[in-house]
Amino acid sequence: MGKANPLLRTLPHFLTWPTLRFRTICSGRLGFAGTKSVETFKEEFEIGSRIITLETGKIARFANGAVVLGMEETKVLSTVTSAKGDSLRDFLPLTVDYQEKQFAQGVIPTTYMRREGAPKERELLCGRIIDRPIRPLFPPGFYHEVQVMASVLSSDGKQDPDVLAANATSAALMLSDIPWGGPIGMIRIGRIFGQFIVNPTMDELSLSDLNLVYACTKDKTLMIDVQSREISEKDLEAGLRLAHPEAVKYIEPQIRFAAKVGKSKKEYKLSMMSDKTLEKVRKLAEAPIEAVFTDPTYGKFERGEALDNITHDVKRVLEEEGDEESLKVLPKAVDTVRKKIVRKRIVAEGFRLDGRQLDEVRPLYCEAGYLSILHGSALFSRGETQVLCTVTLGAPTDAQRLDSLVGPPTKRFMLHYSFPPFCINEVGKRAGLNRREVGHGTLAEKALLAVLPPENDFPYTVRVNSEVMASDGSTSMATVCGGSMALMDAGIPVREHVAGVSVGLVTELDPSTGEIGDYRILTDILGLEDHLGDIDFKIAGTRKGVTAIQLDMKPSGIPLDIICECLEPAHKARLQILDHMEQEINAPRNKNDSTSPRLATLKYSNDALRRLIGPMGALKKKMEEETGARMSVGDGTLTIVAKNQSVMDKVLEKVDFIVGREIEVGGMYKGFVSSIKEYGAFVEFNGGQQGLLHISELSHEPVSRVSDVVSVGQQLSVMCIGQDVHGNIKLSLKAALPRSGGLETNDVVEGSVTSAKETANIWAPVWNVSTTQEQQNSASELPVGKHEVDEAKKPTSQIPVILIRSAAECDEEEKSTSLNLSSEGSPIVNVVQPDRKSKSRGSQNVIDSSPKSKSRRTQDVTDSRCSHSGPFPYTNAKKSKVTMQKESNSDFQRPSGDEEEAKDKASVTAKDLKLGTEVTAKVYQIRAHGLVLDLGGGVRGMYRFEEDSKRDFKIGDKMQVVCSSFSSKGIPVLTTVDDE
To answer: What share of the chain is helix, strand, coil (3-state, %, to 5)?
Structure first.
């Protein structure tokens, strides 16, 4: 010690206490006595061009089996444990828990407690993905409690961890001492542009039309889960045959891994039934059970009651004999006897419990619109299985937010499946999420998702709720059928119907080899056939192909050839079911009533939306409480959901009052006269905006002073007729007033006041095809409001004002014979689309009366609108002032430079003309419906023929005419002195 480092002599005494198990300090290194180095084992292999690693020994060392499986930067830990002691159950209590914690992607949870709560739907679904293939491989009679816990340690977002967790669980079971007949391999297959992809990334899955999850042993299929976009059965079979050898690649590395570090399997007590007990119960129960199963008149509950009576009779005999051993396993023994009888009768004779043929579908009943007040509803029955499906539409912000490690952040289509106890005549308790309900609902959701319109065309949130009213097998497939009809009843533009059917299988094993000797495929299985059969193969799709599949089985695997053989009878049954559904409803519903729900989308500037929301959203909340509507705000978008039209009118009125709305040419507005000038009046309207009411637009009669017609503070209903070159809004009062003769100057129908209800993209109701298309097929609108828009979109609501403004347009009118003239002459032909209640007459007039001088661009817009189909147009009619001005100039363009010059001169000279001024004019041109008159100096005006008036004019004839009015461009409109 004399040569030791002198610093060590000053070491505190407590650090040398032997109780701390310090070893001798050598060379300045500290170490603990008895420390055992951690021994880690790894296995590395490649599947689908990606390196996969299996690791054990570093973490979770106390678990019966623990494996970390990694693919690139995604790592999943799976542990398995088993309860000790003897089991007193007659079933396998297997629990699989899958968990995704936010630390795996470097995020703190957004919950109030900042920690993960109850399992989310995705976690339950991933737990089912793991459970379904491993459960059949536990040995018969092994009823000890087993728990599997899979946790995502890290995620790079590229791979879905569910498949990795299933393979990690298989490896952990192989390393444990729990008896299990694995290993298994699970693989995911995608398809992009017809090419299959092994282990696709999440980005690749977003482009794929197939998401196939396949699990198997070395030579048999265990589980299939498919979501696809109408893939054909032939292509699906090709995908399955590719998936099997790829999944098998996981098996050999697990066997090598278990050989290196696996435990020897522990001897457990198996709860097996003695042959003596089974034979005794068979002799007592076989004959009465067979009598029940051969009588097709029994319903589900009558059959169940008769079988219960047989069990009670057997129990009574065993009690008299004092056979306690047989009494303990009596229910399972009777069930075994039932199973053998049913399976033997199906395989040997081809007869089923209810007397149907093997490929026969139960009687069907379909009813769409069962609850008319709802957005959509349908009742679907197949045999004694009955499901009620309802559809509720919501705003885009109603979409479900998902906090998963991978996949999209929100979900706009939701299907919630509910299995209440009364549907099987039982007493039960409703509490929390049920794994079975979540799994069945997700399967139906996948099936219907394939036919929904894309989000750009249909941005609204949809919730389908399925309530099982009676259950006798295949309620999830009945949900698919009922949900498809309910979506059409709601008017949602689904491409076509989706139907689903469940296929079963009954096999007969060869006693010598244990392999399948004979088998029968059953179409549309009953609940009891599901229980006593081998598989439940649920297949949903359209006429074009499959959209979703879920395969579960009870034996330890079925050959893939038999599984593929089940696709054809499922396809035939699906077509039969689709025929019945299409007879009930074959297209999105057209309904229009006061109780129908309404959806509206309005475009506003973000400043306007901020005014609408108010501080801390107080104003928006107040409007929602007062009206009962729901409002959601996006970037420049306001979406309103109302229960009916009256609620929608109320909330739109409040919105108009607060932020105004985009102004349309031809739109009717209420306002107050704010000031009067010599040349007209300024009107304040639409939330504080100003418009000019020119003196020429005050009345159909000549007006000398503005104050003779209007006064400051007076409330007026005016029409927007355009804007001038400076961007000022031009209004007209006479367009909304009747003529002195009692006739109106235009086709404005009472109640056709344009408001936000018209300018918005209103789905009123959401299923109203004809009304919406009528609005689309009208001429283009020109909004001139101050609200900001990102770009001009194709209009949905159009209310134009079509004018005969110049000689050039008169020239074009002669070529177009579609112009309808009223019996009372008027210099302006105003054709305005009526509101929704006036049906399509106004829209038809607009189309028929459109002048052919309209620019090519405007015509193209009209053509594109007319070609649109579907009940849900999702376009918006908002354009900027600049856009309106350009279109306005384009619409009124002349083909001739001389005529353009004449127009300019006329516009200038017309300012000097006064109403009532007499002029001697020459006939410059003769048209079908009027004359172009030369007033001298290159100034020209318009004269329109009246009924029974003189029409035999010649070019150069002189006429004494008087100026009766001016067009909106200042062109003088003339009548003969005699006419005056």
So the answer is: 35, 25, 40
Amino acid at site 534? D
Side by side, the strands of the sheet bearing 598-603 are: 630-633, 637-642, 598-603, 761-763
Dihedral sign for Cα 479, 482, 484, 490, please. negative
Distance CA 693, CA 396 (A): 40
Indicate the helix (H) or strand (E) that contains 843. Answer: helix 841-849
d(Cα 344, Cα 337) in Å, to the nearest integer? 11
DSSP bridge partners of 509: 516
CA distance 866 to 758: 18
∠ Cα 98 101 106 (to 5°): 145
DSSP three-state, residue 934 = strand
Place of tokens 């196939």: 212
8 Å CB contact between 557 and 222: yes
Three-state secondary-structure class, residue 516: strand
Separation between Cα atoms, residue 668 and residue 719, nearest integer Å: 4
Closest by CA to 358, choosing from 568, 197, 77, is 568
**pTM of the model as a whole:** 0.69
Give the chain's radius of gyration (CA, Å): 40
For residue 972, what are its two tokens?
A: 């003088």
Q: What is the mean pLDDT of residues 790-807?
A: 33
pLDDT at 78: 97
How would you class 797 by CB atoms within 10 Å of its CB: exposed for 0-12, middle for 13-18, buried for 19 or more? buried
**Alpha-carbon gap, residue 383 to 917, rounded angstroms:** 86
Q: What is the C-alpha to C-alpha distance for residues 435 and 128, in angstroms, rounded to an integer? A: 8
Kindly report the number of other CB atoms within 10 A of residue 597's CB atom. Answer: 24
Strand 972-976 with 939-944, pairing: parallel
Cα dihedral 52, 57, 62, 65 in deg (nearest 10) = 40
Q: Report residue 190 as tokens.
A: 């995608």
DSSP 196-209: EEES--HHHHHH-S
The mean pLDDT value of the chain amounts to 78
- List 96's β-bridge partners, or say none: 148
| Choice between 825 and 159, residue whose per-residue pLDDT is larger | 159
Classify residue 315 by burial, with Cβ atoms within 10 Å: 0-12, 13-18, 19+: middle
Backbone angles phi, psi at 469, to 5 degrees: -90, -30
d(CA 170, CA 236): 26
Residues 921, 959 contacting (CB under 8 angstroms): yes
The distance of Cα 977 from the centroid of its chain, to the nearest Å, equals: 67
Q: What is the dihedral of CA 134, 135, 139, 144, to 10 degrees?
A: 110
Residue 303 pLDDT greater than 50, yes or no: yes
Report yes or no: 600 and 639 within 8 Å, Cβ to Cβ.
Answer: yes
Residue holding tokens 């129960």?
A: 285
Selection from 853, 835, 852 nearest residue 778 by Cα: 835
466: β partners: 389, 417
- Give the length of the chain: 980
Structure tokens at 312: 């009670």
Q: Are strands 680-685 and 939-944 parallel, antiparallel or unpaired?
A: unpaired
Residues 6+ apart with CB under 8 A from 343: 506, 508, 532, 533
- pLDDT tens, position by position, 333-391: 999 999 999 998 899 888 888 889 999 999 999 999 999 888 899 999 999 999 999 99
Q: What dihedral angle (degrees, nearest 10) is formed by the CA atoms of 349, 353, 356, 358?
A: -50
| DSSP-derived 3-state class of residue 100 | coil
User: Rounded CA gap, 859 and 850, in Å?
Assistant: 10
Give the C-alpha separation, 724 to 720, whole Å. 12
3-state secondary structure 102-165: HHHHCCCCCCCCCCCCCCCHHHHHHHHHHHHHHHHHCCCCCCCCEEEEEEEEECCCCCCHHHHH
The Cα 507–Cα 500 span in angstroms is 23
Q: 444 and 415 in contact (C-beta within 8 Å)? A: yes
How close are the terminal C-alpha atoms of the chain, in Å? 135
